[in-house]
Amino acid sequence: MNDLRIINIKKQFKQTERRGDPAFSLQPIQLTIREGEFFSLLGPSGCGKTTLLKLVAGLLQADSGEIWVGDTNLTKVPSESRKFAMVFQQSLLFPHMSVEDNVAFGLKMQKVGKKQRLDKARAMLERVGLAGYGSRLPDELSGGQQQRVALARALVANPRVLLMDEPFSALDPILREEMRELLGRIQKEFRVTVLFVTHDREEAFYLSDRIGIMNEGELLQVGNARDLYERPASTTAATFLGLKNIIEGTVSDGRFSSIGGNFEFAVNDRFQAGQGFLVLRPEAVELMPNASLPPKGSLHVSGVIQQLRFKHGFYLCKVQVGDEQLECVFSSRQRENATAGQKVDLMVDLKDVWIVEK
Amino acid sequence: MERRSNLIRLFFFSIVFLVIVFPFLPLLLSSVSFGWQWPNVLPESYSFRAWEYVLAGSSGTWPAVGASLLIAGIVTAVNILLAVPAANALSRNKFTGKWLAEAIIFAPIVIPPFVAVMGIHLTFLRLGLTETIFGVVLAHLSPTLPYMVRAVMISYNTLSVDWEDQARMLGAGPFSRFFHVVLPHLMPGIAAGASLSILISLSQYLITFLIGSGQVVTLPILLFPFISGGDPAIASAYSLLFAGMAILTLLVMDVSLKNYYKNKKASTVKGQQRGVEM
After folding, report:
1. Boundary-marking domain end, from A235, A264, A280
2. Could you report the predicted ipTM of this complex, rounded to two decimals?
3. Which residue of B has its CA nearest to A103?
4. Same structural domain for residues A253 and A230?
5. Interface test with B, best of A55, A61, A80, A102 (most B CBs within 10 A)
6. According to CATH, what is the number of the domain B63-263?
7. Are strands A314-321 and A298-311 parallel, antiparallel or unpaired?
8. For residue B278, what is the nearest residue in chain A, using CA coordinates?
9. What are A9's strand-pairing partners?
């Protein structure tokens, strides 16, 4: 097994010259990425995800910790000999070389013969949908095409691990989706291990087998997309995943009650007693039909609709419940009877509630 | 509209003509004149005496041209070798005393060469480097290196480290990175610096005179006595020869640089047609 293992990697940056700017440090990080896995590091900008990526690449020197692939310790191996490949935010195609020379560059460095490497480069270009573009110069291509070439160039030499640093963030949304699909497909075809850095959670959710959420130099939580979304380990993770309904309260005697007292329900013993935060996914909140009793095993609240907004295919609704504002998602049919200012009853299946310890 | 732009073009052309070409005309006339005296607008009689003298083997012109070009060539080559790592260090790193290093490198631009050369001369006398081409080359480095470093530094400033990181991630070692990624990017800067370095070295009189002590004869050394009161006709001929040599050298450099880029382009254009046919 050629897993990529990151063992207690740590990096402390010196205080920058600007005063009052705290020195950034990457807390010791321990992570194993399985062979052929697509792993994303997700986090806001400045959270250290690119730093971690560069440490894995060897472009930055770690203070302590080790990088292994399979049984090989790569900590002291220079970047150029690690047989990793990297795609940056910019395509960084060498401007004085033709597209196929760019793609063949890695093979040239491995002393592969000219004919062979150009054949491989052309085949690779075909795989990314750029057959026949090989003899152009990079600046004759569009941004999306350039990034495809960068991807082809990274993959052509069969890297052990493909590192990607927000590769699509400079592209426009439609192109980004196209590239996402292409990358997903190609990653499966080549079964290459990918470590992908992004701040775009949709991108991470679409592509990844597992995701690691990072914040302020710390790896907060690792899991697959659904686990993370439905069971965030902290409010920071929940917020970053776009979960806005976070309500403070306490768990005691098997019941959760919010500070305002509007949310109160029985919890199972999964959740420990003490202070905590209730996290409600917007999709889990349902409109209750008029004059009906809440079914057993559900949380029931009532509130006033503040705002209804149509998003692609569904309605985003803000409901004021006491001091709290809940964000919910309704289908067009559900919303038919609802208007802003109206009083509504809402329910959430208790299987869908999640409580984060404080 | 078109007429107007034509007028503007004509205007600029005349200025260029007046400033650059016109001064050469009296020089040309003077070089073929025989006793051209005030207040005559044109020489009274013509002769190729001056050109015969200059181009004849006995005047030592050709060895002097050779020496000038050899010195300028070596100086420029050494400058490139020195300036590239220096520019790399200066534009990429922060270190204490960086301002001092920069000040020392760029000092020859500000300090009159005469001041420095007096000291250099003394040192070279002790070291036995005077009267040698090697010594002259060394002395020529100080006024030329700053321009070279400056030009290459500007090229380095526009080269983000990401490019080298990218090449690294594709398996390129330090040498390959420099040769395939850094050098092509620096090329325009190096070309600019090299032209300056060649021109400055070619036109050096004082330094060559002092360090070479009359034994290293470059074209300016031959030219100078004729300008300072010798024979104006011969001085004019030498001046023209000097200008021709400098222009020719720059042209050769320019053409070879264009060829370098053209070859790159040609190979890709050829490939493109192939690509279309497929």
Report:
1. A235
2. 0.83
3. B170
4. no
5. A80
6. 1.10.3720.10
7. antiparallel
8. A132
9. A29
Q: Does B274 touch chain A (CB under 8 A)?
A: yes
A311 shares its domain with A197: no
Print burial letters for B206-242: b (CB count within 10 Å at least 16), e (below 16).
Answer: ebbbbbbbeebbbbbbbbbebbeeeebbbbbbbbbbb
Q: Spell out the per-residue pLDDT of chain A, length 358, in tens.
A: 689 999 888 888 876 555 455 567 888 888 999 999 999 999 988 888 899 999 999 999 888 889 999 899 999 999 999 999 999 999 999 998 999 999 999 999 999 999 999 999 999 999 999 998 999 999 999 999 999 999 999 999 889 999 999 999 889 999 999 999 999 999 999 999 999 999 998 999 999 999 999 988 889 999 999 999 999 999 999 988 888 899 988 888 888 888 888 888 888 777 778 888 999 999 888 888 776 777 778 888 888 999 888 888 888 899 998 888 899 988 888 777 778 888 888 888 888 889 888 7
Asked whether B162 and B93 are in contact (CB, 8 A), the reply is no
Measured between beta carbons, which residues in chain A are less than 8 angstroms from residue B265?
137
Please indicate whether, in this complex, the C-beta atoms of B171 and A132 are within 8 angstroms of each other: no
A80, A196: one domain? yes
Residues with Cβ < 8 Å from B160, sequence gap 6 or more?
none
Q: Which of A235, A263, A281 is the last residue of a domain?
A: A235
pTM of the model: 0.82
A226 shares its domain with A247: no
From first CA to last CA, the distance across chain A in angstroms is 38
The pair of three-digit structure tokens given for residue B201, joined into one six-digit string = 């070295």
Measured between beta carbons, which residues in chain B are less than 8 angstroms from residue A83? 171
* Cβ of residue B277 closer than 8 Å to a chain A Cβ: no
CATH number of the domain at A176, please: 3.40.50.300
CA distance to A21, A49, A220, A328, B204, per residue, from A214 (Å): 20, 7, 5, 26, 62
Cα separation, A108 vs A119, in Å, equals 12
Using the beta-carbon criterion (under 8 Å), do A94 and B272 form an inter-chain contact?
Answer: no
Domain ranges of chain B: 63-263
Is the distance from CB of B126 to CB of B207 less than 8 angstroms? no
Name the domain count of chain A: 2
CB contact under 8 A, B184 and A83: no
Of B168, B171, B181, the CB nearest to A94: B181
- Tell me which of B96, B166, B263 to substitute to probe the interface with A (most A C-beta atoms closer than 10 Å): B166
A119 and A14 in one domain? yes
Q: B268 and A81 in contact by Cβ < 8 A?
A: no
Q: Domain check: are A118 and A173 in the same one?
A: yes
Report which of B99, B190, B201 is spatially closest to residue B140, judged by C-alpha positions: B201
What residues make up the domain containing A53?
Answer: 4-235
Q: Which two tokens stand for residue B276?
A: 């279309």
**Residues in chain B within 8 Å Cβ distance of A110:** 171
* Nearest one of A298, A296, A243, A251 to A270, comparing CA atoms: A251
